[in-house]
Design goal:
By secondary structure, the chain is an alpha/beta fold. It has a domain of about 200 residues: Rossmann fold. It has ten helices and 14 strands. The strands form four sheets. Strands 3-2-1-4-5-7-11 form a seven-stranded parallel sheet, with helices on both faces. It has a three-stranded mixed sheet with strand order 8-10-12. Strands 6-14 form a two-stranded parallel ribbon. The protein binds nicotinamide-adenine-dinucleotide (NAD). The site of nicotinamide-adenine-dinucleotide has 26 residues, from helix 1, helix 4, strand 5 and strand 8.
């Protein structure tokens, strides 16, 4: 079949948004480890071919990855630690291996010429403990925890194997999602605010967050897959704002909540991702955090 599109991890947060943007669902296949009734029903209703299975499994992955023209490769473990305090080494190993094993399966089994869109992370710089340092795509990455080490290794695997890739190093992605997927800070703060819970600002909320809307992420993935840009890596962040500012947006739209400064340590002060490269492609960010908070809390 021509123009076959595969979304791995497509039953997740970004996948859900991406589905809305893919018009021709006839040639679309979604694969995810989730096999629960709710997920299966959702895809039946959408009339999208859904296959439940673990892409870590070589045999399964071989069947899935062959004969597709375009892969949005979103599968990965995302509920991960953000500091090295009380780190569970076993869990870290699982996070890293899940990411790297799937990518190895992908490069081994895809057909020649298949295009791969892969979301990496701004956290590949997490070990650079300087505030407001600006990172360009060619800056030296220094990951620390399994999640970002795994992502950097996946980037290398794509490059080494000469795959036709586009990598987006995403900031923390926010947007509407089911409650249990609202765990990263920009999402957690609006969820807590909605529930009238106060917000703790560790170290006074000085940490700079690199954030981007899930809507822009999905738009960029489709945009970049249609362009002739090949084997390119892009930083993808629309706003750099402090945790305190994030808290202030939330308290502006829910006057019942309080921002509480704490002395808890933060892992690093945050940094700036230079996104001029993606902007030069003609891509325009259209969604901003303040509007999301307003909509979520109204
Ligand atoms: N959300 C963010 O802030 C963010 C930031 C940077 C990068 N990313 C990356 O974007 C991708 C999608 O993220 P998301 O926010 O939609 O996360 P998500 O957790 O909602 O979706 C990931 C999906 O992958 C599936 N999955 C995990 N392991 C699998 C396996 N072995 N086989 C098949 N499916 C598997 C999960 O079931 C889940 O549905 C991930 O790779 C993530 O690391 C996300």
């Amino acid at each position: 079949m021509k123009n076959r599109i595969l979304i791995t991890g497509g039953a997740g947060f970004i996948g859900n948004e991406l589905l809305n943007l893919i018009k021709n669902k006839k040639n679309l296949i979604v694969v995810d480890i989730k096999r629960n009734k709710k997920t299966i029903k959702k895809f039946q209703k959408l009339k999208i071919k859904y296959i439940g299975g673990n892409l870590n499994n070589k045999k399964f992955a071989k069947k899935i990855f062959k004969n597709v023209d375009l892969i949005y490769h979103l599968a990965g473990i995302t509920k991960v630690p953000n500091t090295d305090v009380n780190l569970n080494k076993r869990k870290e190993k699982i996070i890293y291996n899940n990411s790297v094993n799937i990518m190895n399966n992908l490069v081994q089994h895809i057909s020649k010429g298949t295009r791969v869109v892969f979301p990496s992370t701004h956290l590949v710089y997490e070990n650079c403990k300087q505030n407001k340092k600006i990172f360009k795509e060619n800056s030296k990455a220094l990951p620390k925890l399994a999640y970002s080490r795994g992502k950097l290794e996946c980037e290398m695997i794509l490059k080494k194997n000469n795959i036709n890739y586009a990598i987006l190093r995403l900031g923390s992605v926010y947007g509407f999602a089911e409650k249990k997927r609202m765990f990263n800070l920009p999402n957690l703060f609006v969820l807590r605010s909605k529930n009238n819970q106060n917000l703790s600002l560790h170290s006074g909320g000085v940490q700079i967050k690199s954030i981007v809307s899930v809507k822009d992420v999905a738009r960029a993935m489709v945009f970049i897959s249609k362009k002739k840009y090949k084997k390119e890596l892009y930083h993808f962040v629309s706003e750099h704002i402090s945790v305190k500012e994030i808290g202030k947006y939330c308290s502006k739209f829910n006057k019942n909540i309080k921002l509480i400064n704490t002395k808890d340590k933060i892992p690093y002060l945050g940094y700036i991702m230079d996104c001029s490269k993606i902007l030069k492609t003609g891509f325009v960010f259209k969604n901003f955090y303040k509007d999301f908070v307003k909509e979520y809390l109204k």
